[in-house]
Amino acid sequence: MATFLSPTYSSNPHLPFGDQHTAPFYGKDILSVKQFSRGSLDYTFAVAHEMRVMVERVGTFDLLKGKILTNLFYEPSTRTSSSFTSAMERLGGSVIPINEVHYSSVAKGESLPDTVRSLECYADVIVLRHPEIGSAALAAQYARKPIINAGDGVGEHPTQALLDLFTIVEELGQVDGLTVTMLGDLKYGRTVHSLARLLSLYNVKLNYVSPEILRLPSEIVEEIGQKNIPQAEYTTLEPVLAQTDVLYVTRVQKERFTDQAVYESVRGAYVITPEIMQQAKERMIVMHPLPRVGEISMAFDDDPRAAYFRQMEYGLYVRMALLAMVLGKA
Amino acid sequence: MATFLSPTYSSNPHLPFGDQHTAPFYGKDILSVKQFSRGSLDYTFAVAHEMRVMVERVGTFDLLKGKILTNLFYEPSTRTSSSFTSAMERLGGSVIPINEVHYSSVAKGESLPDTVRSLECYADVIVLRHPEIGSAALAAQYARKPIINAGDGVGEHPTQALLDLFTIVEELGQVDGLTVTMLGDLKYGRTVHSLARLLSLYNVKLNYVSPEILRLPSEIVEEIGQKNIPQAEYTTLEPVLAQTDVLYVTRVQKERFTDQAVYESVRGAYVITPEIMQQAKERMIVMHPLPRVGEISMAFDDDPRAAYFRQMEYGLYVRMALLAMVLGKA
Amino acid sequence: MATFLSPTYSSNPHLPFGDQHTAPFYGKDILSVKQFSRGSLDYTFAVAHEMRVMVERVGTFDLLKGKILTNLFYEPSTRTSSSFTSAMERLGGSVIPINEVHYSSVAKGESLPDTVRSLECYADVIVLRHPEIGSAALAAQYARKPIINAGDGVGEHPTQALLDLFTIVEELGQVDGLTVTMLGDLKYGRTVHSLARLLSLYNVKLNYVSPEILRLPSEIVEEIGQKNIPQAEYTTLEPVLAQTDVLYVTRVQKERFTDQAVYESVRGAYVITPEIMQQAKERMIVMHPLPRVGEISMAFDDDPRAAYFRQMEYGLYVRMALLAMVLGKA
Question: Which of the residues A62, A91, A96 would you substitute to probe the B interface, choosing the one with the greatest number of B C-beta atoms within 10 Å?
């Protein structure tokens, strides 16, 4: 469904959670972080927190019993797919896993709108992963059932950004007042772009630490700057580590480099180790969207500030919340 | 199980639905449309209609709770596989999806009878898709559990033919008296052959519209002719469109042509557009087994006569009915 | 979890089943047959037998309702994967199937410990199939959730060995006093090695029948010899068939031979036929881990002594038992 959340929705974020908050999500698509105001983030995270409490207490419960999710993945993403599958199963629902879409009707030339309209009668909600930007919005334009964007190429991956923000909320209690430092590949990192946009809804300070060739795109810096968020760029972590509350580490992906010599020169430049982390606060967290390939030393994994595996778990709760919300059961 | 429905079954199609109708399906295989008489079609569609009502009312219900379906697909078919998965889940049952059979035991040289006998202990019913004709019958010969044929190469795909016929019944109320026009590739189209055979059980008029090289095989024309069904062949749609109640469009598949120049010359010859459809009745339906690749203009999709996406949904109800019937729960 | 069963556990195998038997399995990993004493085997098989009774009586029951299994398969194994899926579903639990791990995070260079720690938050127990020896133990070292080893390359496949032994117990009533003859590829056959080790906990007589180049490795012969188990090696079946209670046939795998001429010379040397089996006892069983490719004639399949398809079914009960045990519900 293509209709975004009503803009009047975010104008009243301080009302107690009720119809004015839940109704806008029921039957809606989740396509972009731009759909979320502070009010709807508060609501989403409140639901996600309830999901966490319920999972810790009873593991699984029947909120979505009888509901079916189609996991329509045009490219493999074990982690995201598994997370949505688990979210649906922990809510008592069922899943239709579709990972072979390449070999089948699509290979015969079928369009995405046709595939979605064919498959939607089997499910109550569709999670879509597709390599092309705008594909989730295109699918939503034709589908009668809610579409949740699980990554559309270089476009968006809103549930990743939401789980990143939820991790900060759950681990540190709030977002306002925090200093968030983003490290690594800030040019191509879709997760970093979406998270930065979401963070700009709060009173935060943003530091960007990257090699010169992997700086955050200027349009994003400008967009965030318009919201009066203090931003600063660095090429080394040292100047900002001590003041950082959230260190968001990203992988420098080999496939982003045409010149492999350049890749080799930067790949090891921002490795987080227990030694380096001695300069950081005692109460702060290190995040990573995973998978990592050496950006964070395994020797740091047992440090309580290492939040990256817990981050995966917060993703489960956020996805449970979103499924319940679009199906009108939150 | 290899035993077909008892021939005495079809001799009494007007009895109220009861044991004489349900018993023959319980524990049986669904291998071919040839197993179906008008009586058993009536029964199947009555169950499928009940499934539709239940899905529309409650979404999912526990008729097959605790039952397990193995979806054994030797070749990918996202749509058919998803449809059976959804059917089983909407009935409260579970699914074992097997799509990787190529890489595994079969690659080690295991025979189909061994694979089926190995896997059947894990499930209550097996849906089999296999590229070779006769494979479903072979599997059924060895299996103790019911086998449902989901396509055996150039052989049969009975649940597709059943859902096609059920679509006609649900959309137009009855089959007797209708004029059904089949368009496109009538030579290689397995779905067209099976549907034509099923339609010959009713008082219908059949029109075949195709390029010369893709005419309906003469043995099928003869088989249907023996039942005194009026049949007529055309190379253009124009002469028959106005009198058509059901227009069944099929895809002209590129892979059927050795000479690509011939393919290019015919592919665009039978495209359905809103303009062409102005000549058709107001109350008629356009069907397509999907996927389509241009045979029907997307501009026609919003026309109420465009039944091809609803057709997918009718497939869900037919498969729910068949699963319930072979498991003795209809 | 890396902690093996306490060695004190096996010292008291004759106590009635109770906490001293169940507690050691709760939350534990199943990595190797070496974890099992006669006492814990007795317990496991008692639970597996209960599972058999329940499945025969009601098909499916809700012992593990709300629990989620992640089936993490780095290499395809349709049979093992399906068996665990069915086991979980027959117990009312759910499954997250992961078969595409190659194409995803792992392809990006993620380590097994990271993959396991990322995925474990979605499930309550992980079944792991991996091509490298020691991988299950490595995963268990990092995971908080129980790991069940479903094959780690040339390492172990403990649930296969357990189901083999359970088959003997269920079919013949006991293990002590039996003569077990192993036939075929005894050098590379992982299942044979594990089964021989388990059998050495009982008072059995072991015969090994193989081509010279596929003899049981001497270290295994020595290990078993230290337990005073009578062992004898043969190159033909004839001298031992008449006295055999369990004939365990294995496939001579083509891929084990560098010289295909040698493979061709031995592949047909140990084929079981109805004629040969006339020399065997009336009450004995023929087993095979499957798939077979001609080592047992299909003409023998209907003989009541042919236990190989029933063996698959016993695997279901053993895996149900193990899942229930590690999740504390046995």
Answer: A96
- H or E element: which one contains C159? helix C158-172
Residue B94 has its nearest CB partner, among C77, C89, C290, at C89
What token pair was written down for A3? 């209709």
Closest CB from B82, B293, B316 relative to A108 = B293
H or E element in which residue A166 lies: helix A158-172
Query: Hey, is A242 helix, strand or coil?
Result: coil
| Count of CA atoms in the C-beta half-sphere (13 A) of C88 | 27
Say whether C65 and A61 touch across the interface (CB within 8 A): no
SS3 letters across A3-54:
CCCCHHHHHCCCCCCCHHHHCCCCCCCECCHHHCCHHHHHHHHHHHHHHHHH
> Radius of gyration over alpha carbons of chain A, in Å?
20
Query: From the CB of residue C298, how many other CB atoms can be counted at a distance below 10 Å?
Result: 14
Selected residues 95-134 of chain C with any CB under 8 Å from a CB in chain B: 97, 99
C62: helix, strand or coil:
coil
CA distance linking residue A92 with residue A62, whole number of Å: 4
Note if the bond before B291 is cis, omega within 30 degrees: yes
What end-to-end distance do the CA atoms of chain B give, in Å? 19
Please tell me which of the candidates B59, B251, B316 has its beta carbon nearest to residue A66: B59
Instruction: Please compute, for residue C309, the number of CA atoms within 13 A of its CA located in the half-sphere on the CB side.
Output: 21
Classified as helix, coil or strand, C126 is: strand
Cα A96 from chain centroid (whole Å): 22
What is the distance between the alpha carbons of residues A16 and A26, in angstroms, rounded to a whole number?
A: 18
E strands within chain A? Answer: 68-73, 94-98, 125-130, 147-152, 179-183, 205-209, 231-234, 246-249, 285-287
Beta partners for residue A147, in sequence order: A126
Residues in chain C, total: 330
DSSP secondary structure letter of residue A272? B
ipTM score assigned to the predicted complex: 0.89
Q: Which pLDDT tens digits describe chain C residue by residue (330 residues)?
A: 433 323 232 333 333 334 444 457 999 999 999 999 999 999 999 999 999 999 999 999 999 999 999 999 998 888 999 999 999 999 999 999 998 666 555 556 789 999 999 999 999 999 999 999 999 999 999 999 999 999 999 889 999 999 999 999 999 999 999 999 999 999 988 899 999 999 999 999 999 999 888 999 999 999 999 999 999 999 999 999 999 999 999 988 777 778 888 888 777 778 999 999 999 999 999 999 999 988 999 999 999 999 999 999 999 999 999 999 999 998
Q: Which residue of A has its CA nearest to B90?
A: A66
Distances (CA, A) of A325 to A19, A22, A46, A330, C247: 12, 7, 12, 5, 58
| A68–B60 C-beta distance less than 8 A | yes
Tokens of A64: 């979505």
Q: How many interface pairs between A and C have CB atoms less than 8 angstroms apart?
A: 74
Query: In the beta sheet, which residues pair with residue B87?
Result: none
Q: Is C80 helix (H, G, I), strand (E, B) or coil?
A: helix
- Say how far apart CA B225 and CA B99 lie, in whole Å: 40
Q: Which helix (H) or strand (E) holds A169?
A: helix A158-172
**H-type alpha helices, chain B:** 19-22, 38-58, 78-90, 112-119, 135-142, 158-172, 190-199, 218-225, 238-241, 260-267, 308-326
Chain B residue with Cα closest to A98: B78
What whole-number distance in Å separates Cα of residue C183 and Cα of residue C171? 19
Cβ atoms within 10 Å, residue A195: 27
User: Residue B127: how many CB atoms within 10 A of its CB?
Assistant: 31
Axis crossing angle, helix C135-142 with helix C112-119, rounded to the nearest 10: 50
Contacts of A222 (CB under 8 A, 6+ apart): none
